[in-house]
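Researcher: Here's a chain I'd like modeled. Treat it as a single chain, no partners, no ligands.
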Amino acid sequence: MPLKAFRGPKVWLWRWRRNPLKRRADVVEAWVVLGAWLLTVLAGVAAGLVAAGTVERGLARERAAWRPVVAHVVARAPGTSPAHRHATAGERVWAKVGWTVADGSTRTGQVRVEPGSRAGTPVTVWTDPQGRLVSRPASASEAAFRGNLIGCLVGVSAAAVPLVGGLALRGRLERRRMRAWDTEWARLGPQWGRMV
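Model: Modeled as a single isolated chain. Structure tokens:
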């Protein structure tokens, strides 16, 4: 016979129904389960939304502040020129480039360029407001994807805290209830033997 036959039909929200056999521990456990679920959902959603919004706003600030600048290769880049090589398309090497910032001073830095690029070859680089090299800023769609991904990860992590706490508290209540049953059984169990 399947185990389900011994359990009886599943009754939804049984902890909230009136029942003469319901103990105080059942009521406490019902509130713990409800509170843990509510906190899990609220913490996960709130933390996820805040994290996603923060990431997207930060990336939008970068898009607004960072500017493309034309830099020039300072010395011939290592490798053979693109016309004479048979390497994989998109292969790049590090080379020193120089550019002029808004105040008229020149800066230099290392960026990836085509192998064999000659001195003076123009290269587009991205700079921050201080003229320092930065990576290309994320597009609006990339920012939305990153924000959603990080929001989901943060939301799941935040939701795990009240969920694990609720499970731990429920386990503690279960152990306390089992000890109480053991105490009652030790007191009443021997009396059943006398009646038979």
